[in-house]
Amino acid sequence: MVISEIIIGAVALATQIAKTVVTIASALGVLKEVATSLLEVGQCLGLLPFDKGFEEIGDQVFQAKNAGIKPELYATFEDYKKAVESYKVDPEISNRLSPQDKIQSFLEYEIDLFQRKYPGISVEPIFTAFASFNKFFTPERTAQLALVIKDNINLLVDVVNFVSGEETNFSKQNSVLEILTPVEKALEPGITDVEAQKRITDCL
Length: 204
Description:
The protein is an all-alpha fold. Helices cover 73% and strands 0% of the residues. It is globular.
């Protein structure tokens, strides 16, 4: 019973964070771009399948949930994940769902997966940063950044803290900038380190 209550609490938190992300991104007119970037993060971390887009995942999650497939009903979260990802959607329901409904469900699912895989990391600042600082976390830059953070989740935390201005230690700021410099140069081959770093700071 206690475990079930913890799972329900985690799902509620994921829903709350997802709503915040959707609200911010919608207000800025970048909802699909933010969803694309967060899909790339989820895929590189092994949370999400590579063969589905965010709307397809969200559609599946939405319909599975309405069919009674909920995490608290499964022995393990992997069992729940398999049930969701094997669920056959109803095309008629899919057509009635708005893109925002699908993105909301997609984000809830990814956030829930993230907080279960990385329980020691505060998930809200990471996901909201992708919406609030979308000029930096573009799909193109995130695709390159994903290659760097896939084996070390703490690097993602460091980058988010740097971009959001939460990191005030000068040495740590420089360390993150050194990590981001080759990411930026991959986006614009031929530029110098100085030019790459200027491009980074201009986005902040």
